[in-house]
Design goal:
Strand order of the largest sheet: 3-2-1-4-5-7-6
Number of domains: 2
Radius of gyration: 20 Å
Number of helices: 11
Order of helices and strands: EHEHEEHEHHEHEHEHEHEEHEEEH
Number of strands: 14
Structural class: alpha/beta
Shape: globular
Largest sheet: 7 strands, parallel
Strand content: 15-25%
Oligomer: single chain
CATH class of the largest domain: Alpha Beta
Helix content: 25-40%
């Protein structure tokens, strides 16, 4: 197959740079355009010195890219700025494939988007077209899509753990508590006081309590699986490590046992290349998936009667963002979905 010509919007951010890292060794991809308006004119290795060995195009403003020459574009821009840019890209090249790693097309309901993101959606004609890009749940739709809205990192970890259980009605979807923790790359590369080393390096802090925007994605997809509206208790925390994510979900059982939950997850993911359900007594750990596109899920019986604890972990920049986007790109181009993504976790 001829290599697909790839562009990356927002290549100077963490998700954009991880897309570069993974695509640089993808056998069917050629990175031909990189944008970063604040770093325009620089080489990628000036912004990320660990790319010193790669021959990459210089960073440019997005307006200067000839989109008609590209087959696919990955978007790592912040929410709110993505909608109009993607609309412009698709107007220039209607055949291009879009892998959006921002939040701008994840929510199907326009009113829900306005509620959670503070403004009306600016590309409603595309919102209806976008496919939610959780690969294991929407593989067939992704394969046929032009615009894929890749999920947030927290929703990916939570939904892979809970959607099969909600669909099988093994848990009470009206009683879900999610305790989530993410490395500081989840906050982006911009300068923020709470992610300075001296502020985050030796502490653990909650944020966006009861109001984190990923709650909307989680509720949207668990609700779709359960066939009813759902509200979850979701609290994220910033943990002092660069990458990685761990979600602990506390659930009430619907006449099932923790072993039933594990069996359902094993059945759901028996043929999935990147989702691993641990054996009874084996606990997922962030270091088992760091730098990889893999997800680990485990189930433990709660000491409280009729409850269980479901554990899930992934790398927030890989399966939680760029890796999942590449997995979706593979599907969209008819490639084996594992292509370029079989890296073993970095340990220690």
């Amino acid at each position: 197959m001829t290599k697909k010509k790839i562009g990356i919007l927002g290549a100077s951010g963490y998700t954009g740079s991880d897309a570069v890292r993974l695509l640089a060794r993808h056998p069917n991809a050629e990175i031909t355009a990189l944008t970063a308006n604040t770093h325009a004119g620089k080489t990628m290795s000036e912004v990320f010195p660990h790319f010193f060995m790669l021959d990459l195009p210089r960073l440019v403003e997005w307006e200067k890219v000839d989109w008609t020459r590209l087959d696919a574009v990955f978007c790592g821009l912040p929410h709110g700025t993505t909608q109009e840019i993607i609309a412009a890209v698709l107007k220039a090249n209607p055949a291009i494939k879009i892998l959006d790693m921002s939040a701008d097309f994840r929510l199907r309901d326009k009113d829900s988007y306005a509620q959670w993101y503070g403004h009306e959606h600016r590309a409603l004609e595309l919102q209806d077209e976008a496919v939610y890009g959780l690969t294991e749940l929407y593989r067939e739709k992704i394969t046929a899509a032009r615009l894929v809205a890749c999920p947030g990192c927290y929703p990916t970890a939570v939904l892979l753990a809970l959607v099969p259980l909600a669909k099988a009605k093994l848990i009470d979807v009206d009683d879900i508590i999610i305790d989530a923790k993410s490395g500081v790359t989840g906050a982006g590369r911009g300068l923020k006081q709470n992610t300075l080393f001296s502020e985050a390096g030796e502490g653990l802090s909650p944020y966006s309590i009861g109001s984190h925007r990923h709650s909307a994605e989680i509720e949207q997809e668990i609700g779709a699986a359960a066939g009813s509206a759902v509200t979850v208790n979701f609290t994220p925390h910033l943990i002092p490590m660069a990458r990685g994510e761990f979600c602990t979900s506390y659930v009430k059982l619907n006449g099932a046992t923790p072993d039933d939950l594990r069996a359902e997850l094993e059945k759901a993911y028996a043929n999935e290349p990147f989702v691993h359900v641990t054996k009874k007594g084996v606990l997922p750990q962030t270091q088992n998936v760091r730098g990889s596109n893999y997800v680990q899920i485990g189930v433990v019986a709660d000491r409280i009667k009729n409850r269980a604890i479901v554990l899930s972990t992934l790398d927030n920049l890989v399966k939680g963002s760029a890796g999942q986007a590449i997995q979706n790109m593979n599907l969209m181009f008819g490639l084996p979905e594992t292509t370029g993504l079989e890296q073993i976790a970095l340990f220690p």
